[in-house]
Amino acid sequence: MKKYLVSIVSAASLVLSGMQPVLAEPVAVQGSSIFIVDNSIAGSQIIVRNLIDGKLDACLANAGLNQLALSDHTIATDILIKNGTAIITTYNDTSLVTDVKLVDVTNCPIVNTIDLSECYAVVEDDRLTIPCLKYGASVISVIMKQRGHSMNYEFDSYTPKKDRKYDD
């Protein structure tokens, strides 16, 4: 009980003294890019790193899109990448308003690629299996059945590859 009380008193004293808790910055991963919202500078910015090697990518900085130019007392709280646009939620601690800032990130490598090492068509008995067939926004594996003794095949069935979805 004594440890619990000491923990509460310590936490309350830190809050009352004005110390801010240390939190990680918001992060989004899309394709081969990592997007990090950096609130350490005035107005906030987006830092882009390569997912493979972690190196900085200047895809937004070169276009002048990395600076968010948020007003005083406003910070970026979250980031989401959808259809080539970064959607950044913001919060103003004076007016207590939550808002959204949109940034075009199409200059960054955000296209997902499919590992082709598992995409070889296979003929087995009277079946032809075609993996990695793009259908809409999904990738499916199609199974074709041989027609008679010819080399003609017709659709038999398909299976979705749930781990192989991607956005265009």
Shape: elongated
**Residue fraction in strands:** 35-45%
Low-confidence stretches: 163-168
Sheet with most strands: 4 strands, antiparallel
Distance between the ends: 56 Å
Order of SSEs: HEEEEEEEEEEE
Strand order of the largest sheet: 1-2-3-4
Number of strands: 11
Number of domains: 2
* Radius of gyration over all CA atoms, rounded: 25 Å
Overall pLDDT: 78
**Residues in helices, as a percent range:** under 10%
Count of helical stretches: 1
Structural class: mainly beta
Notes on the protein architecture:
There is one protein chain. The chain is mainly beta and 168 residues long. It folds into 2 domains: 2-104, no CATH class; 116-160, no CATH class. 9% of the residues lie in helices and 43% in strands. It is built from 1 helix and 11 strands. It has one helix at 2-16, and strands spanning 27-30, 33-38, 45-50, 56-57, 74-82, 85-92, 97-104, 122-124, 127-135, 138-146, 153-160. A 4-stranded antiparallel sheet has the order 1-2-3-4, with no helix packed on it. The chain has a 4-stranded antiparallel sheet with strand order 8-9-10-11, with no helix packed on it. The radius of gyration is 25 Å and the shape is elongated.
